[in-house]
Amino acid sequence: MLTGYFDAASAEPLHPAARSAMLAALDSAWADPARLYGAARSARLELDRARARVAAVLGVRADEVAFTTSGTQAVHLGVLGALRSRRRVGRHLVVSAVEHSAVLHAAEAHERDGGEVAVVGVDETGRVDPAEFAAALRPDTALACLQSANHEVGTVQPVAEAAEACRAAGVPLLVDAAQSAGRIPVPDGWSLLTASAHKWGGPPGVGVLVVRKGTRWRSPLPEDEREGRRVPGFENVPAIIGAAAALEASAAGAPAENARLSGLVDLVRERVPATVPDVQVVGDPVRRLPHLVTFSCLYVEGEALLTELDRLGFAVSSGSSCTADTLRPSHVLEAMGVITHGNVRVSLPRGAEPSAVERFLAVLPDAVARLRAAAGVTGA
């Protein structure tokens, strides 16, 4: 792993446990798990073991877990499948304003199909008010969606309170746990959950869709015999086995690693505004993911700052989606009412070195100053 890689929120480096498990599975679990001959039965056995391991970490039944090709596909199937199954109840969908684009794109598809979407706002830290979320629920609400933690600023959402409100209203709750699975526990009470293996150190191309027993769900796609008729297509069994191994290992090491990374994030939260003028650190300072911190710099273009930091050996991302092809700031930052440009998201991977964080904090002030000077900004 590169010592300056600080973009774990996009993709956590492959966990050694995943690498070992996948290499072994390439020899032992390559056959079609739906067939009846020996090699296929072996692959099926390993697939079922991986499913049970993932279920154990998530605290659910193995037959509630289906593997998808990505976290995005899991979200799309979860949202649209739940809505399709409850059309007799109504066509009203509730989402937070800071959901991942996968949820919002599914909501847009629902609207185009004649459904109605209610968007619940957030405060300046990016957190939903549980009372406002509960007030958005109606007798014709078919589904509500609330992420476990925000992917851009790290704020942890009130899932337990939202789940209780949904239970009282008889509305299923879908929780997008892409940023928290394997890092922090997700409160119980939800009906559907989605996650993505490459966020916890598994391989890309493996997502997880959990549909709890008793939750109505009907696939929005043509039926297929795979994954309990929930997900079409041939399962990538070696990758799924690697994902399960990484999830187990990441969850087991999370308490100690979270405490260590949280201390480094606290250092960034304190040092950046003290050394760089006109900076706003965003997100909840307490109710947050342990490894993620986001700040915005006035008078600096985010893309230019990311490029400069890359030149200096640091891979970070922008919480903002304001790029040349979208020309649009982040919907998360807009909803929070904070600065939407000059935005940097630092998300520390497993094993991030304190010395690398110190080097990042040492080069950042000069990098910002150079870009401001090049833009003709003085006195900042």
UniProtKB/TrEMBL annotation:
Keyword rRNA processing: no
Alphabetized SUPFAM superfamilies for the sequence: PLP-dependent transferases
Matches recorded under Pfam families: Aminotran_5 (PF00266)
Stretches assigned to coiled coil: none
Reaction catalyzed: (sulfur carrier)-H + L-cysteine = (sulfur carrier)-SH + L-alanine
GO molecular function ontology, one term from the record: metal ion binding
Alphabetized UniProt keyword annotations: Iron, Iron-sulfur, Metal-binding, Pyridoxal phosphate, Transferase
Protein name: Cysteine desulfurase
Biological source species: Actinomadura logoneensis
